[in-house]
Known about the structure:
With 120 residues, this protein is α+β, with helices and mostly antiparallel strands. Helix content is 22%, strand content 38%.
Amino acid sequence: MKNITVSALFATLLSMNVNAAEAPLLLAGVEAGIDTDSSMTVIDLDKTQDILTSQPTGAADSWYNIDTTTYYDLVVGQHFSVDQRPCVAYTLTVKHSSKTESQDLEACKNYDGQWISTTI
């Protein structure tokens, strides 16, 4: 299942309209689970996109993915801009099995309105 999710994610990324100078780009949240050996599913990535789009600075949202038995906690940080594009800092905490991983991340919107990680 994990390999299918990763393959689907990369296929999605390859189909995005971006400038060549910005490639390669990854959807916000894809960095999650590196240390806990659990990657976000498409549903988790969509949830991350929705939260970053709709929540103000300081807002927190959590969800549990029953399929991967992974708990996510996202706290929206400061909004800022880079090259006149909206960006946001956020903290993402991933709990899977007995491991917890917390990362401070940043993302900016691409021209299609998707939040793209700038932390990688």
